[in-house]
């Protein structure tokens, strides 16, 4: 099972990052520059990105300017911050192209309680390596995603440190559903996209009062055997099947948690999300 994309439909132009930016990006995720754009190197880059760069939405609540795609690299690399899917996958797509991978941007609809959300609500990537005859699903910007790339051409279960994933057909218009432990996560469009296609949804996420990035505050990162999440002043640590949750005492302890667990140095702490109007 795979997508059929015409060459003229793909967003696979040559990488535009200069060598210094590529080197800095690789250092940010603790990865070496691969000699060739192979599937093995892709798996290492993906895993290191997922494990090093948090999925976080702090700047939404600080009302700071943000950008997506290549425009997010300065935030992720220079300021050593995290981001959401448009930022993380958009930036990662630029790094992969600069390293010689064939990258296509795709859109997804996050599924909550069995219902797909807005069109273009999620960004992910389809990547082809130089030594691989099949494409890979690459997603470093989803809090419940896989640690390593998933094969796009298979409907068989794929074991990953973060769960068992499966791509299921049967959705309308030839779309695919990604399942984790048999729970639907998001629906993937069959057609290719560009980062610019997501601009209007980015505005919605940043400005609409009911946007999930404005009604929730989170910073989360997987660990080798679990996950750590900071939501406001509540720190949740899950390790080896055990979960601990505690409320932090004051701003300095919250700042220390951002620094210790996620490597984030924040001059200003985000305020709690405003309650939704009934």
TrEMBL record:
<dbReference type="Pfam" id="PF00797">
    <property type="entry name" value="Acetyltransf_2"/>
</dbReference>
<protein>
    <submittedName>
        <fullName>N-hydroxyarylamine O-acetyltransferase</fullName>
    </submittedName>
</protein>
<dbReference type="InterPro" id="IPR001447">
    <property type="entry name" value="Arylamine_N-AcTrfase"/>
</dbReference>
<dbReference type="InterPro" id="IPR038765">
    <property type="entry name" value="Papain-like_cys_pep_sf"/>
</dbReference>
<comment type="similarity">
    <text>Belongs to the arylamine N-acetyltransferase family.</text>
</comment>
């Amino acid at each position: 099972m795979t997508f059929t994309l015409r060459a003229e439909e793909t967003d696979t132009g040559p990488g535009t990052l200069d060598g210094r930016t590529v080197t800095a990006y690789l250092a940010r995720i603790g990865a070496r520059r691969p000699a060739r754009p192979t599937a093995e190197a892709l798996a290492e880059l993906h895993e290191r990105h997922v494990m090093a760069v948090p999925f976080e939405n702090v700047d939404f609540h600080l009302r700071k300017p943000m950008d997506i795609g290549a425009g997010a690299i300065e935030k992720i690399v220079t300021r050593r911050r995290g981001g959401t899917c448009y930022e993380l996958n958009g930036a990662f797509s630029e790094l992969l192209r600069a390293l010689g991978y064939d990258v296509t941007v795709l859109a997804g609809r996050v599924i909550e309680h069995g219902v797909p959300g807005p069109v273009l609500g999620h960004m992910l990537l389809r990547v082809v390596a130089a030594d691989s005859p099949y494409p890979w699903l690459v997603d470093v910007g989803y809090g419940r995603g896989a640690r390593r790339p998933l094969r796009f051409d298979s409907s068989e279960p794929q074991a990953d440190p973060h769960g068992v994933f499966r791509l299921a057909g049967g959705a309308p218009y030839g779309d695919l559903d990604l399942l984790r432990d048999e729970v639907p996560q998001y629906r993937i469009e069959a057609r290719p996209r560009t980062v610019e296609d997501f601009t209007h949804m980015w505005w919605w996420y940043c400005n609409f009062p009911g946007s999930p990035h404005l009604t929730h505050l989170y910073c989360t990162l997987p660990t080798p055997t679990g996950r750590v999440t900071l939501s406001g002043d509540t720190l949740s640590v899950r390790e080896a099947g055990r979960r601990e949750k505690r409320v932090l005492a004051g701003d300095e302890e919250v700042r220390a948690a951002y620094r210790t667990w996620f490597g984030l140095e924040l001059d200003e702490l985000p305020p709690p999300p405003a309650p939704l109007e009934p």
